[in-house]
């Protein structure tokens, strides 16, 4: 499809969002049956031969004709780029096999090799053990962006992207009518046979309890970490003594960046948790297929419990922990465990905060940031709330109970990311979840006749089953068994 200046009135597939989740979906639309059948990465070795991956990386693709992507930022990966830039994150937390390309797990590393890139971080802190033997390599944030840029170019995906915000949707015939607001402020309806919602977690903020008792001046002055992503000027304006609420990666990156400008107090509602990946290592190691099997065969209540246990709230990596510890030693960061804000007030005349804590301490600060994550509540979601009225789904903890293909009941709408967590598991929001989500949705699109069904190409050896192969050789890759696709 040659890019038209105006949005098309009707498409087969409309994707809302142009982040890594949407890119994983677009990659499947581009590759059709050539996409990999098993999205759980091997621990060592590879599934497809490097020479096949290299030729995949040279092939200009012709994606399905009638698909469009709308993003309120107007560019592929823009929110991700801003997020990593604002927080000055040098390397991803996820490893080299996790990326949006659906051809093979090794595509990013093969691309890096072909482009003489070696800006990986080698994980020194991760013990090589029976239950986990790799990957041990994290790509840099810039590498991920450059890699994604090349995927967009190969798939001519800019021709499918429009700068617009999806505002609402309703069933229309056998499809959906989605109302979008374009960058110029004009409203337009797009009729789509299928809609894939990949808005990411950052469009909706979770605030701690004290926020709801703030007066108007304080509400105007407080930041949610995500307010800082798309506005670098705002980030630069923060100086003096800071107070940050949160215990995850975002809060720690903010601390590392802001502490040199003035002392930062970091408030954690529990103790400090340090782990390499945001999921426990057993979810990434040799038992990873068993973890998935257990999750997917569990009733919903148990899935919620597994989610809670596995994600275990916010945590930071050992590398970031070392940075924070160093700042603590220098007296630039003060970390308060088991501490919550009871009340906060903002004095506009001095532009300063007074914050009372549950430890009876009172802190003064020049700025206050809540790095408290995403609110998930489909019932009050402006885009999906109408669907819930027309075709109510069961909700658990605000999450919808979707079908196996992440579909909203019988409506032709599929959800990716954190909203699909009851189906996809605790890493739904990450790139691992993106790969699994895109696979499941592509199967439904194939059944609907909108995409050629997945099949194993000659060169795709198949999934690793429980046999982990050794070494990076094609010979070993051929010893792999078959298992259920997840
Ligand atoms: C500090 C930090 C570090 C992380 N590190 C990793 C990591 O290393 N590896 C990993 O896998 N995950 C990581 N994550 C998780 C990360 O959020 C997700 O992997 C990723 O951003 C989610 O991709 P996405 O496409 O769902 O969301 P996004 O990247 O947020 O993209 C969603 C897009 O949707 C658009 N949008 C939103 N609403 C609308 C609308 N109504 N209409 C049109 N467009 C809309 C937005 O403009 C945005 O471009 C990290 C998260 C954080 C906060």
Automatic annotation (TrEMBL):
InterPro entries per record: FAD/NAD-bd_sf
Coiled-coil positions: none
Region (Disordered): 455-486
SUPFAM superfamilies xref list: FAD/NAD(P)-binding domain
Listed Basic and acidic residues bias regions: 477-486
Polar residues biased stretches: 459-468
Protein name: L-ornithine N(5)-monooxygenase
Organism: Cladocopium goreaui
């Amino acid at each position: 499809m040659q890019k038209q200046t105006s949005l098309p009135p009707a498409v087969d597939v409309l994707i809302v969002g142009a982040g890594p989740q949407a890119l994983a979906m677009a990659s499947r639309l581009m590759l059709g049956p050539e996409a990999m059948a098993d999205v759980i990465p091997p621990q060592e070795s590879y599934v497809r031969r490097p020479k096949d991956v290299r030729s995949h990386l040279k092939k200009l693709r012709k994606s399905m004709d009638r698909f469009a992507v709308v993003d309120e930022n107007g560019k592929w990966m823009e929110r991700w780029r801003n997020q990593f830039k604002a927080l000055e994150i040098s390397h991803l937390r996820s490893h080299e096999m996790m990326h949006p390309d659906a051809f093979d797990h090794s595509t990013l590393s093969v691309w890096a090799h072909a482009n003489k890139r070696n800006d990986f971080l080698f994980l020194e802190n991760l013990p090589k053990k029976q239950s986990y033997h790799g990957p041990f390599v994290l790509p840099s944030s810039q590498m991920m962006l450059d890699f994604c840029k090349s995927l967009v170019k190969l798939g001519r995906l800019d021709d499918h992207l429009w700068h617009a915000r999806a505002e609402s949707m309703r069933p229309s015939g056998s499809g959906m009518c989605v109302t979008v607001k374009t960058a110029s402020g004009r409203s337009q309806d797009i009729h789509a046979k299928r809609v894939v919602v990949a808005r990411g977690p950052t469009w909706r903020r979770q605030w701690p309890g004290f926020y709801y008792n703030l007066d108007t001046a304080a509400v105007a002055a407080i930041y949610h970490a995500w307010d800082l992503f798309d506005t670098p000027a705002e980030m630069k304006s923060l100086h003096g003594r800071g107070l940050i609420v949160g215990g995850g990666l975002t809060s720690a990156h903010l601390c590392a960046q802001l502490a040199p400008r003035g002392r930062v107090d970091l408030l954690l509602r529990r103790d400090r948790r340090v782990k390499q990946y945001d999921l426990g290592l057993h979810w990434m190691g040799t038992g990873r297929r068993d973890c998935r099997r257990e999750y997917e065969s569990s009733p919903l209540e148990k899935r919620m419990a597994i989610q809670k246990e596995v994600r275990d709230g916010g945590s930071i990596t050992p590398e970031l922990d070392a940075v924070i510890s160093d700042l603590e030693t220098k007296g630039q960061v003060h970390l308060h465990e088991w501490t919550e804000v009871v009340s906060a007030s903002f004095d506009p005349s001095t532009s300063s905060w007074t914050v009372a804590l549950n430890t009876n301490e009172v802190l003064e600060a020049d700025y206050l940031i809540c790095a408290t994550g995403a609110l998930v509540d489909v019932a009050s979601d402006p885009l999906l709330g109408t669907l819930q009225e027309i075709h109510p789904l069961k909700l658990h903890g605000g999450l919808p109970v979707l079908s196996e293909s992440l579909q909203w009941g019988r409506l032709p709408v599929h959800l990716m990311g954190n909203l699909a967590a009851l189906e996809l598991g605790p890493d739904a929001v990450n790139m691992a979840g993106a790969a699994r989500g895109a696979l499941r949705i592509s199967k439904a699109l194939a059944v609907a006749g909108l995409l050629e069904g997945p099949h194993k190409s000659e060169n795709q050896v198949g999934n690793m089953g429980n046999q982990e192969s050794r070494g990076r050789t094609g010979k070993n890759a051929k010893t792999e068994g078959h298992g259920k696709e997840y």
